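Fill-in record for Alpha-d-glcnac alpha-1,2-l-rhamnosyltransferase.
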Amino acid sequence: MIFVTGVAGFIGSNLAKYLLQLDDNIQIVGIDNLNDYYDVQLKEDRLKELDKYANFTFIKGSIADKTLVDNIFKQYQPSIVVNLAAQAGVRYSILNPDVYMESNIIGFYNLLEACRHSYDDGKTGVEHFVYASSSSVYGSNKKVPYSTEDKVDNPVSLYAASKKSNELMAHAYSKLYNIPSTGLRFFTVYGPAGRPDMAYFGFTNKLKNHEKIQIFNYGNCKRDFTYIDDIVEGIVRVMTKAPAKQQGEDGLPEPPYAIYNIGNNHPENLLEFVDILQQELIRAGVLPEDYDFERYKELVPMQPGDVPVTYADTSSLERDFNFKPSTSLRTGLRAFAEWYKSYYKD
């Protein structure tokens, strides 16, 4: 059984759907608190897609609820745990830090403890704990592309600090209790039915409503945009190959622990990104052909917590899993624009 947290979220729902379509014998239990950080209807619509599968079970609740998490582990005894439940968003962590501590720290700890106790009484226990980290952990690092070998002790937001904390906590539990764990640093995930707080989605909403879009750092930011299908394939490949358990020279376990970047390895300038987005929105009929984009673009300074460049070194992912994300930005934004036109029929 696979336990997926944040299953109504963008990545969680796509991962669950992929796995359910892959094999009728795969049992998935998903949890989500369906919070209102963004449109709950979008989350409910994602769940409707998953409810079609007999081998899917949904539990509404929070991973910060220790009793609930412990009961799920006791009842379903997952062999793989994929933790995608987290409060996302760099800027929102400045406005509402409490929810980051609750979900990203306490919730993460509850999952680690449940994994630890899954081995009690000689049980097989959790074979692999996979969790979402973020490119945000690289903070103010100057060296690009970002490598998992880089020192990442300079977070510039509480969100980034919470994700770095997850990696440290997972390492400690891997060392202490021999729990195979893998952290995945995602780079700017986008695609159909994505998160409305992400730039491409927010820009689309504003342009459709004839509102100005703000392009930060005067358009000089670069982002390594990663299409959702590439993220899902990366997770699935990683899930099936847990870090090996080994004894260290001290007779204690070497932590079966790994970290990978999942990014497109190709940063795009934000102005170029907006240009491709507007072309695809016109092509899909979301915006009229004579739309005056220049009128609605506003170049503004960098926002607190943001970084000028994200750029993933994916060499270790290629080496260990023979996989490299490859979906072009135009292909991905075309799929998003067509979904947007279909979903928001007005």
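KEY FINDING: The chain has a mean pLDDT of 92.
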